[in-house]
Amino acid sequence: MSQENVEVVQAAYVDLSGPEDPRWDRVHEDVEVYDHDIMDAGEYRGHAGFVSWTEDWSSAWAEFATEPEEFLDVGDRVVMTFSMKATGLTSGVAIERQDAMVFEVRDGKIMRMDYYNSRAQALTSVGLEA
User: Fold this and answer.
1) How buried is 39 (Cβ within 10 angstroms: 0-12 exposed, 13-18 middle, 19+ buried)?
2) 31 — phi, psi (to 5°)?
3) How many Å apart are CA 130 and CA 19, to the nearest integer?
4) Beta bridge mates, 64
5) What pLDDT, in 10s, does the model give residues 59-113?
6) What is the DSSP letter of 37?
7) Distance CA 16, CA 87 (A)
8) Does this model's pTM top 0.85?
9) CB of 102 closer than 8 Å to CB of 77
10) Band of the pLDDT at 54, cuts 50, 70, 90?
11) Would residue 26 be called left, alpha or beta, if left means φ above 0 and alpha means ψ between -120 and 50 degrees?
12) Do 59 and 52 touch, CB atoms closer than 8 A?
């Protein structure tokens, strides 16, 4: 089952990060999104909440690009690390860093997503050492 969860997350990344409207096939309608990188992040629930989170997150950047690096099977969760290159909207400062997300998958759909600004934080959140 856990390799299937990795495949769900890999496919969902493609479905949700493309230039066209997101495909929700692999994301539960009641998905919960928690952003541990935004200090005053609100509560994001459901497909509309996911869209709001992406809008809130991306509003800080003039431009950004992400590239998946690693998908770790952790039972019913998947840790995805990715490289990010971005330019601050107001500061103009360019950054390059490695961020990570933890996805909880049930019945072939993403139920929860936690965003961290480091691989170490994500691994710690699932009980693994960085």
Assistant:
1) exposed
2) -50, 145
3) 33
4) 86
5) 888 999 999 999 999 988 999 999 999 999 999 999 999 999 999 999 999 999 9
6) S
7) 21
8) yes
9) yes
10) confident
11) alpha
12) no
Domains and CATH numbers, the chain: 2-125 (3.10.450.50)
In total, the chain counts a number of residues equal to 130
Q: Which residues contact 56 (CB under 8 A, 6 or more apart)?
A: 35, 38, 41, 42
Nearest in space to 120 (alpha carbons), one of 78, 76, 83, 81? 81
**Cα–Cα distance measured from residue 28 to residue 47, given in angstroms and rounded to the nearest whole number:** 8
Tokens of 18: 């493309």
Spatial CB neighbours of 15, under 8 Å, sequence gap ≥ 6? 22, 23, 24, 25, 26, 27
